[in-house]
Amino acid sequence: MNALKRHRVLTAIWGSPRGWRGTAISVNHSDIGRRFIIAAFAFFAIGGVLAMLIRAQLATPGSAFVGPEIYNQLFTMHGSIMMFLFAIPMFEGLALYLLPKMLGSRDMAFPRLSAYGWWCYLFGGTILIASLAFGVAPDSGWFMYTPLSSKIYTPGINADVWLLGITFVEISAVAAAIEITVSILKVRAPGMRLDRMPLFAWYLLITALMMIAAFPPLILGSILLEVERAFGWPFFDPDRGGSPLLWQHLFWLFGHPEVYIIFLPAAGVVSTVLPVMARTRILGYGWIVAALLALAFLSFGLWVHHMFTTGIPHMALGFFSAASALVAVPTALQIFAWLGTLWNGRPELKLPMLYLLGFFLIFVLGGLTGVMLAMVPFDWQAHDTHFVVAHLHYVLVGGFIFPMLAGAYYWLPHFTGRARVPKLGEAAFWLIFVGFNVTFFLMHLTGLLGMPRRIYTYPDGMGWTWLNLLSSVGSFVMAFGFALFAIDVALQIFLSRRSRRNPWGSSTLEWAMPIPASAYNFASQPHVEDRDPLVTDPELGLRLARGEGYLAEARHGRRETMAVDITTGTVDHVVVLPGNTGLPIMTAAVTGSFFLCLLFGFYWLALVPLAGVIALGWRWAWVLGWREDLGQVSIRPGETALTHRETTGAPGWWGSVFLLISDATLLGSLLFGYAFLWVVAPNWPPPELIGGGVLLGLLAALAAIAGTLLTRHAASASRKGSTASASRSASIAAGLQAVVIGVLVALGIMELPSPSGHAYAAICWALLVYAAVHALIALLCAAFIRARIASGHVSGTRTLEVSVAQLFGDYAGVATLIVLLCVLVPVVMS
User: Fold this and answer.
1) d(C-alpha 216, C-alpha 222), whole Å
2) Neighbour tally for 739: CB within 10 Å
3) How far apart are the C-alpha atoms of 172 and 122, rounded to whole Å?
4) Following CA atoms 377, 383, 387, 391 in sequence, which dihedral angle do they give, to the nearest 10 degrees?
5) Rounded to the nearest 5°, which phi and psi values hold at 524?
6) What residues contact 106, with CB distance under 8 A and at least 6 apart?
7) Cβ-contact 274, 356 below 8 angstroms
């Protein structure tokens, strides 16, 4: 097969139809990545307009431009859009587009999951923007502190829009995190050991792992607050045993790692673009990876430094203050590695390099003010002033937007296949750089002069007037710079000349292909022998196009890509990926219907789309797989490998593992809330609310253990080819999980008081609901295995589905036992 014929065959397999139908059903990672990036930039523009309105209001004292109600919606939506609809989705889009190309793969591990995440993001973001248009936008701040966001102070649906809309968007983020993690670990080019991965992949891997652990506390907090608003369960009401500080803890357990989740992908762009601009290799590859691991670990121990003024114990103040200062060490290590790279190389002052220099100056200043705020005495003085606003923007704009703009100009030729228009980008840079510093540097001064944040006006004579006016002028200069950037990108897309391949002389694999990239990325997949494969083999792209790599021949119209051992990069198996389908958009639409029912108070009606999600999830899994063993398949002349359904450690199994890790983090956050209230709330748990239920608890525990063991037996029997025994065990396991659900519900109804009366009853009910939901998931998994065995999709070699079902069965059993222990310990102790 010659190169042109191979291109046509692979395009037919991997491509998407044109028009609206292709838009709806495409699961190609390049399509999904581009959509994320374009939508994130559109949301950024909306957030920027809101910022201009904020600065117009604060430009002069006593301004009547907008009133307090509208102003509260403006600053809440500005922060929410920038954090949840711009920063995270922008990095997700870049990751989805670039990762397979950098890793020498043809797609991500779970293409349909990427598409589902995209539609969830789009629908959730649309809900939030629509609320702004209809005047019911969230107005309690992007941090939604209770009791301000509780029903008594925010009686409309404003807070509900935030809680449900952000939860909807977070589903997309968790899906992307799992997708990125498994793709980096498993779906790489053969030979690409962990220490041969591009640094950008390391940054994204660690970021995705942080997302898996950091987002569940926010999702849990949003669920608990929405339940409190909808049904009166008093998790955050101190009059009924709750605590508003619990919301702050749950929010900042997410919120502080979120800062590094935003920063690390941008730092990955710096570590990728900087060596190319300096015409040398990155200095200290191993040290940078170690710094990333340290930064990820430390970031989870800093959340309380947002709460220094809430009255926490002095020992905790000292610990979190020291940890907040310590986190500067791994960040500084990266900065010194970048400076050393510049010193070793021969830097060229091209446009991406201009943005990187702007990043260095702004981010270092933001880091220094961060160290200042980490010191408790200073934080007590500057807390909730414009000094904090300035610090936040120096870190996030300097640490994310400037590197991303450098990355935009660096990778735009890859996206468009065209060269940029000279000089226009430089003008945009100087407008953005000067406008940003005028805007936010002066906010440090207004903050030190005592100007609080989140105020819609201020009196004259406070010494803030000229500083605020200049700050507002600077913000409009910056806005003109971003508008010029958008014009520059549009001109490059539509009017510029064609670009040559690899215009920067880069060494990473995404440039070993024609640009813009084909739907399949590589006509054949490479074998990687070096960290800089295009330096070692400049003709690699040509050889792959001729079919000299892996999987050069298309088989039976299947989308195939290689999977490798996680650490060594040796060939593991061939992954057969699903093709284009409408299931992701349908599932996202039904999921959105569920959230809309909750938003408008149709709680019983919400059960209909919930059932729809379960049915579509069943269909999602059912259409995969095959009824015969494929055995060893050729991957290149003289080499064979099994397909992913006939081996262990398939991406689907690893994806389930990371999903359950995220799920366990949510359970851990719920247990944290249970323990926190026990410690801080007076007379908790109240003796009069502690009932019985030990016998019911024992029955539920026995049923959970038996159901788990039978699910494991079904999996073991399937691997041995005993399908009849496996089918019986799966059927009984499903029945036992139904018993668990019934007993848990009976335990709550018969032994617990009304959950609206006290936080103790409410959180016990929340634990029981969590266990019941996971028992239902285990029931569905067991029933699915029973059906798959009957249909012939499961055999002694095709055991991927039973392995996944075993994981969910094990987790449901352990979660049920933990929940029962927490609920029944006070009963036993009393």
Assistant:
1) 10
2) 18
3) 9
4) 90
5) -145, 150
6) 14, 100, 520, 521, 522, 525, 551, 559, 560, 561, 577
7) yes
Look up residue 283 and give its two tokens. Answer: 């200095």
Q: What is the mean pLDDT of the chain?
A: 94
Looking only at the bridges linking them, the beta strands covering 633-636 and 639-641 are antiparallel
Nearest to 680 by CA among 765, 760, 752: 760
Handedness of CA 757, 762, 763, 768 (dihedral sign): positive
User: Are 824 and 736 within 8 A, CB to CB?
Assistant: no
Please tell me the distance from the alpha carbon of residue 762 to that of residue 772, in angstroms, as a whole number: 15
Environment class of 464 (CB within 10 Å of its CB; exposed 0-12, middle 13-18, buried 19+):
buried
Q: How many CA atoms are closer than 13 Å to the CA of 61, on its beta-carbon side?
A: 11
Residue-wise pLDDT tens digits, 666-685: 999 999 999 999 999 888 88
Q: Which helix (H) or strand (E) holds 163?
A: helix 158-186
Report d(CA 252, CA 647) in Å as an integer.
Answer: 41
3-class DSSP assignment, residue 556 = coil
Query: Which amino acid, 278?
Result: A
pLDDT tens string 113-134: 999 999 999 999 999 999 999 9
Phi, psi of 555 (to 5 degrees): -120, 120
Distance CA 409, CA 417 (A): 12
Other CB atoms within 10 A of residue 361 CB: 14
Per the document, the length of the chain is: 830
Q: Whole-angstrom Cα distance, residue 218 to residue 222?
A: 6
Cis peptide before 459 (omega within 30 of 0): no
